[in-house]
């Protein structure tokens, strides 16, 4: 049976279910779970991006949310934490996540697809080092951490690029890498989305 998603009207009222394929082909509103992982080490604040696999059907090879996925029909946001285990091989209890909010956004990954999401966005402090992550080979090709302050400056167009440090999987082996990151290297979520997440992450670390 095809994966079924709950679908909604623009006011977030439930109107039924549809297959994932129909949801994207018809541009139906549905729910997703976004988990951003952050860290503070001494005076440095970091946020973690995953590198999408080159064979993904949408946004291949771009840097994206630490872990994210669709909420299936009947699921609640707390079920979304499975995405960390599936994509990154780590587990963080749902009660350790800070809820940012539900952010509606529409993307057009290709001419045949309209992705209308009600994004349930969360942040968590990560206790993990890069070597603790074990990636889902067909979904994620690498992980890169960037300074939170630099990520904000990139989205605000104060700099043309920033630097990320992490690793890429090459022939099943981790290859450590420092890479130059442009705005175009990120999945094209809106600037408002990125700034909301990054600034909320900064405030969360301020409150620690």
UniProtKB/TrEMBL annotation:
Database matches in SUPFAM superfamilies: Nudix
Every Nudix hydrolase domain range: 28-171
Top-level taxon of origin: Bacteria
Classification via Gene3D superfamilies: Nucleoside Triphosphate Pyrophosphohydrolase
InterPro entries named in the record: NUDIX_hydrolase-like_dom_sf, NUDIX_hydrolase_dom
GO molecular function: catalytic activity
Protein name listed in UniProt: DNA mismatch repair protein MutT
Biological classification of the source: Bacteria, Bacillati, Bacillota, Bacilli, Bacillales
């Amino acid at each position: 049976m095809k994966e079924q998603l709950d679908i909604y009207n623009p006011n977030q009222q439930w109107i039924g279910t549809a297959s994932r394929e129909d949801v994207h082909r018809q541009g139906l509103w549905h729910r997703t779970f976004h988990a951003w992982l952050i860290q503070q080490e001494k005076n440095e604040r970091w946020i973690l991006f995953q590198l999408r696999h080159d064979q993904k059907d949408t946004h291949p090879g771009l840097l994206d949310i630490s872990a994210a996925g669709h909420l299936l029909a009947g699921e609640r946001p707390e079920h979304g934490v499975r995405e960390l285990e599936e994509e990154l091989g780590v587990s963080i209890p749902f009660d350790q996540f800070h809820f940012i909010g539900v952010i509606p956004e529409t993307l057009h990954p290709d001419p045949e697809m309209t992705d209308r999401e009600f994004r349930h966005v969360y942040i968590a402090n990560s206790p993990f080092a890069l070597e603790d992550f074990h990636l889902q080979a067909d979904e994620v090709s690498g992980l890169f951490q960037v300074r939170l302050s630099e990520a904000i400056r990139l989205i605000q167009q104060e700099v043309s690029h920033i630097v990320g440090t992490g690793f890429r999987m090459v022939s099943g082996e981790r290859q450590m890498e420092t890479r130059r990151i442009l705005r175009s290297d990120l999945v094209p979520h809106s600037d408002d989305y990125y700034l909301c997440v990054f600034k909320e992450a900064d405030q969360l670390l301020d409150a620690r």
